[in-house]
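Annotated sample (chain length 248).
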Amino acid sequence: MSAIYILWLRQLKRYVRSKPRIIASLGQPLLFLFGLGFGFGPIFQKAGQGNYIQFLAPGVIAMTVMFSSVFSGIELIWDRQFGFLKETLVAPVPRILIMIGRTVGGATVAMIQGLIVVLICFLAGFRMSNYERLPMAILFMVLVAVMFTAFGTALASVLSDFQGFQLVMNFLIMPIFFLSGALFPLTNLPTAMVIITGADPLSYGVDGLRGSLIGLSHFGMSLDVMVLTVIAAVLLSVGSYLFSKIQL
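Output written by the structure step:
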């Protein structure tokens, strides 16, 4: 447990001490929230869908948590190239504990980022439909954070350079976000899009957050929790296996 705690604390200290990282990580959420939220708001309202900020905010929160979680994998590549990972792996600690410590740390950082964006959403005019559901929203944020931190760790375990990681980001993470329903409703879609969005794991995170925050759920919150929990467990298992096979 001490190894997990130390690695978790290291992740938090690196995040808190990097002020440019904190500021830069808020740029994309702010762009989507204010650029799309207020830009497409009148069109969304004329289509009879209501306030676009209310609809968009849960998707922006999920996006923030996802990107922060996946980018924790870059820190693993950084540690590998500069020798810190070797020093960690030669310690008399099972590799699975090292992986858990890094995953918990990355997920915590992603949660902090997500909570900051929640506050920004409130400043932009977003309002929850029922504040008693806030713990449920936090649960969905945790599940998304753990799921994509494990995914980022799994990717970084098989990649050895930043360029390869960036390619994977562009070909996997961006489509996962744009096809999750974060920016558009999942109702009345073509059959192909229904299948794709249903296979997108982030769709269930966005849907769960939207159900918790504004009471609008497409899949049902029980299904959202079940799917996210199963996928998070699978990715943790895969990430642990790949991390245990890292060759330095």
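Annotation: DSSP finds 13 helices and no strands in the chain.
Annotation: The mean pLDDT is 82.
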